[in-house]
């Protein structure tokens, strides 16, 4: 088994959980130990997030991980206004903060201002390494995390639903964009706070969630049938 496999990551699973799950299936099918089977992915999804995970199976594909991770991505996003999270998502400590209740027109105007090339400071709770240590490990240990801003590109931001305090968006962004930070920055422009309550990745480059497999449907037969060469 070698190629690309599209998987719909369920909530509460880490990206590594999915990789490990598929690795065991492939190893059993090829009568190998899991440690001798190469499986990687093209970009991490947070545990609370769901959606498209592009798995790379076999050495000739895992070496392309960096190239694939550079693809643009599209997300369905739900944000909650008036509350903030220590991690920017439902897994952190939630705090209610008094603020304005923006109109739909105000939200759309702010979204327009975020499209194009912008500067973004990655979150402390991220997998970026600082002196060889993941930032989220330092943050969890209570240590100060200072990350340099980086340029990202917001291809498009579309408002698809609004019923205060929930805002629903579709965001097409460049690789390296942190949606949790984007949500917080949008809220700041609106004169309030927010955190990401739901995040679902629907596209990675030319790959679409429509063609992804559910975890419960994965086995040696279905993987062989759906793997992309």
Account of the 3D structure:
The strands form 3 sheets. Strands 1, 2, 3, 4, 7, 10, 11, 12, 13 and 14 form a 10-stranded mixed sheet that branches. A two-stranded antiparallel sheet has the order 5-6. It has 2 domains: 89 residues, 2-Layer Sandwich (Pseudouridine synthase); 132 residues, Pseudouridine synthase, CATH 3.30.2350.10. The model has no long low-confidence stretch (mean pLDDT 91). With 229 residues, it is α+β, with helices and mostly antiparallel strands. The chain starts with a strand and ends with a helix. The chain has 7 helices and 14 strands.
Notable traits:
2 domains; two-stranded antiparallel ribbon; 34% strand; 229 residues; Pseudouridine synthase; single chain
SSE string, helices as H and strands as E: EHEEHHEEEHEEEHEEHEEEH
CATH domain class of the largest domain: Alpha Beta
Shape: globular
Overall pLDDT confidence: 91
Number of strands: 14
**Beta-strand fraction estimate:** 25-35%
Work out the radius of gyration: 19 Å
Count of helical stretches: 7
Pairing-aware structural class of the strands and helices? Answer: alpha+beta
Query: Could you estimate the helical fraction of the residues in percent?
Result: 25-40%
CATH superfamily of the largest domain: Pseudouridine synthase
What is the CATH architecture term of the largest domain? Answer: 2-Layer Sandwich
Distance between the amino and carboxyl termini = 10 Å
**Total of domains:** 2
Question: How would the blueprint of this fold be written?
Answer:
Layout: E1 3-9, H1 15-29, E2 39-41, E3 50-57, H2 59-62, H3 65-69, E4 73-81, E5 83-85, E6 94-96, H4 104-114, E7 116-120, E8 129-130, E9 133-134, H5 135-140, E10 150-163, E11 166-173, H6 179-189, E12 194-204, E13 207-208, E14 213-214, H7 220-226
Parallel strand pairs: 1-14, 3-12
Antiparallel strand pairs: 1-3, 2-3, 4-11, 4-12, 5-6, 7-10, 8-9, 10-11, 12-13
């Amino acid at each position: 088994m070698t190629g690309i496999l599209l998987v719909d990551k369920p909530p509460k699973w880490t990206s590594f959980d999915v990789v490990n799950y598929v690795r065991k299936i492939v190893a059993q099918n090829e009568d190998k130990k899991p440690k001798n089977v190469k499986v990687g992915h093209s970009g991490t999804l947070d545990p609370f997030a769901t959606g498209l995970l592009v798995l790379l199976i076999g050495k000739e594909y895992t070496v392309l991980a960096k190239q694939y991770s550079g693809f643009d991505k599209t997300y369905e996003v739900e944000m909650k206004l008036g509350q903030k999270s220590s991690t920017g998502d439902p897994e952190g400590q939630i705090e209610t903060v008094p603020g304005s209740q923006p109109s739909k027109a105000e939200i759309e105007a702010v979204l327009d201002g975020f499209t194009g090339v912008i500067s973004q400071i990655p979150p402390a709770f991220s997998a970026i390494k600082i002196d060889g240590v993941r930032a989220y490990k330092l943050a969890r240990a209570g240590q100060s995390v200072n990350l340099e801003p980086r340029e990202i590109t917001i291809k498009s931001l579309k408002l698809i639903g609004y019923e205060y305090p929930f805002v629903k968006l579709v965001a097409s962004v460049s690789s390296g964009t942190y949606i949790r930070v984007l949500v917080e920055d949008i809220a700041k422009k609106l004169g309030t706070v927010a955190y990401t309550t739901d995040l679902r990745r629907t596209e990675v480059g030319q790959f679409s969630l429509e063609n992804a497999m559910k975890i419960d449907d994965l086995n040696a037969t279905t993987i062989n049938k759906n793997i992309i060469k």
